[in-house]
């Protein structure tokens, strides 16, 4: 039961709206029961009793209160008889009709106000959950995304969060409105006839059992459906991001088959889920209706035995009992929707409860400027803790302030991982990475990232203007500073030739620009940060000769008087480095200047001869 209502924890910031929703749901339940309580006895009295009898009943008065069907029967008879005697049958009928209209209006107004106050809860929870999940997604380590599909994460951020919204509304109604309606109805019915009500109480658990059995299956089925939807979104995301390759390799039939297979699986699972949801309500309505017919039979016998004196109360009783169907039906639907919400909550919690891994120290030290340099002190690292297959093994490396150090080696030798450790995307399993003699884990992450700039092989740009891409992540920059950074990066000339200059939108991932132009924008972005530490991850490897010359010239300007770590793909990029580090299988096997290593005639010389370092 605790798990059933677990989604309510998301409403803790909306207590005022929850209270108002509950209040109006209570009023709705009261007015719903009152509508029938007004009509049935009055009709019995007005059509079957002459004025002499009405005067006699009106003269009896009301007995002292006691909980029994007889008390309510006499009480209703007295009130309505008094009304008919005073106003006449026509006047009394008019007043009762007006009263029913007013009560119905109040009932529906209460219903609307309950929904009015639940709207901020539903949408507010969705907003809060998405914000929370998005923030958590940015805090999670890169290793998390190597094991998860982006499409599945996107599905959790959208579809699963929306399911929580619906589940919250259903939960609030299932806890407050529907049970309260049933309690009020049962209270009146119990006062009218204990015997008939006991029959209902004993038989209703059959309907409840059906709800539980269907709901249990529904939760598991819904979870599987969400997982398949995540896979489906992943395929769509991969397709849209790789259309050029798909078309070039004529892989459209393969991708079409893959998508349609998953889509068919999702279709079948969705049909199964909907059938389970749709089964609960009619099944329970049928059971409840069978119970009502039994009550009609038993109540009819009681009317016969009382020579008609129980007729008015039984009309009221049966009318109230028939009103049990809508709330029981709604509880069935709510329970099933809550089960779907619980399946979505489990998927959402996989993100929210995921271990961040890279945590800031409780009292971190500020880092405002690089003073001496960077030191790898016997650093070893593996992606999976406890895995003996270390990506980096016993790395000892010092990068003095203002020096350029290049990393070379075949693909998979650990170059990018070593550079990522300076950004603290990963922490060392053994040894320590020191900056100015301080363990990197003791520094403020924001301070660290503020002093580092990265230029990667793939230019990571955004579907925004040139200006916003260069100024990305910075708030207090001027147009002059952005233009100056573009000039240093040899980008100003081509930017001014764009249709709207610096205000030109460059398309998804900068698709409207050439590779060299995109890379020079990335360099301009790095220049504008004015970093102390510069990481170049194969920044020219994907460029043609002319673009490489312009980009390399921009990089040389960027590296002036900065501490640089260069992951090299081409010889021209690293020839002038102060030290070249040769990595193989996560270990340093050679180190020195270009001239020194070339003369050794070792691994570096072979790499130079091949003109490719992976």
Structure description:
The structure is a single chain. β9 (579-584) and β10 form a beta hairpin. By secondary structure, the chain is an alpha/beta fold. The protein contains 20 helices and ten strands. It folds into two domains: 6-349, ABC transporter transmembrane region fold; 373-610, Rossmann fold (3-Layer(aba) Sandwich).
Detail the topology: elements first, then pairings:
Layout lengths: L14 H34 L2 H10 L8 H71 L2 H6 L2 H43 L1 H48 L1 H6 L3 H54 L5 H12 L2 H28 L20 E9 L10 E9 L3 E5 L6 H8 L7 E6 L2 E2 L5 H6 L1 E5 L9 H5 L8 H10 L3 H5 L18 H15 L3 E5 L7 H15 L3 E5 L3 H4 L4 E6 L2 E6 L1 H7 L2 H8 L4
Parallel strand pairs: 3-8, 3-9, 6-7, 7-8
Antiparallel strand pairs: 1-2, 1-4, 4-5, 9-10
Short description:
With 614 residues, the protein is of the alpha/beta class.
Radius of gyration (Å): 37 Å
Query: CATH homologous superfamily of the largest domain, by name?
Result: ABC transporter type 1, transmembrane domain
CATH level 1 name of the largest domain: Mainly Alpha
Architecture per CATH nomenclature, i.e. the level-2 architecture of the largest domain: Up-down Bundle
Domain count: 2
Strand order of the largest sheet: 6-7-8-3-9-10
What share of residues are in beta strands? 5-15%
Secondary structure category: alpha/beta
Q: Give the N-terminus to C-terminus distance in angstroms.
A: 57 Å
Q: Looking at the structure, what is the overall shape? A: elongated
Helix segment count?
A: 20
Which regions are unreliable across 5 or more consecutive residues at pLDDT < 50? Answer: none
> What is the fold-level CATH name, i.e. the topology of the largest domain?
ABC transporter transmembrane region fold
Please bin the fraction of helical residues: 55-70%
Strand elements, count: 10
The chain-level mean pLDDT equals 79
Give a short account of the largest sheet.
Answer: 6 strands, mixed
Helix and strand string, N-terminal first? HHHHHHHHHHEEEHEEHEHHHHEHEHEEHH
